[in-house]
Write a structure and sequence with these properties.
20% strand
């Protein structure tokens, strides 16, 4: 029974030694426990086998890698998570102030009937595009009140453009936000586009319940430590 268990353990050990670090650690512990059992049966510990040495060496070699990986994840991972996993607002005070810009977009699918009403400015609530434009600008300025962990940053510019697209009977929305500060304005730009889209829906919902707001996304950003970024189709 003991020899059968030892054979099974060695077989599993060889198969998993090249897997993740946790598996290597578990295999090393299993080998140590097996050595203790052999010592209890035969009266002396077995000579250190190549398998045991290999497992221990793998664990020792991977420990620095794990530490390095953890540090890397702290540097490039989710910055809104604290050391114990709690939500936190990131401290940006050590960062330099630079000019930052972000552009976002979204689409509101109206359907032909509603599209024609908006085009003719015949919606009961009034001028859909003008109201949505002001709502988007206002949304950008209130981003920190809507998104809990966003910083309250001074915006230097907000642009919201709404264009009627006859190809798919939609409203194409593009929003841009700019600031000179210590953190980016991606959320401000995306909030502007989102609020503008929601306003289009509110202005037109009496005419149709099938309106859809789609493709809310960041198109580009500039400035900050990560530099410039543009969406590639």
């Amino acid at each position: 029974m003991f020899l059968r268990r030892m054979a099974v353990s060695l077989s599993h050990s060889r198969r998993f030694l090249s897997s993740s670090s946790n598996s290597s650690i578990d295999i090393a512990k299993a080998i140590d426990e097996l050595n203790k059992e052999m010592e209890a049966v035969f009266g002396e510990p077995p000579a250190d086998s190549g398998l045991a040495s290999s497992a221990r060496n793998d664990v020792m070699a991977q420990e620095p890698e794990l530490v390095s990986r953890e540090k890397g994840e702290d540097m490039h991972g989710l910055t809104h998570i604290g050391a114990t996993g709690e939500a936190q607002m990131v401290d940006v005070s050590p960062k330099p102030s630079t000019k930052r810009t972000a552009v976002s977009s979204c689409k509101v699918l109206l359907g032909k009937q509603v599209f024609d009403l908006v085009l003719a400015n015949q919606m009961a609530k009034g001028d859909v595009l003008s109201v949505a434009k002001i709502a988007g600008i206002n949304g950008a300025k209130h981003t920190s009140n809507l998104i809990p962990l966003c910083h309250n940053i001074p915006l230097t510019h907000v642009r919201v453009d709404l264009t009627l697209n006859p190809k798919d009977f939609s409203v194409d929305i593009e929003a841009e936000a700019s600031s000179t500060g210590k953190t980016g304005v991606e959320m401000e730009a995306m909030t502007a586009a989102s609020v503008a889209g929601l306003t289009v829906y509110d202005m037109c919902k009496a005419a149709s319940k099938y309106i859809q707001i789609t493709d809310i996304r960041l198109e580009s950003k500039a400035g900050g430590k990560s530099g410039d970024w543009h969406r590639e189709e």
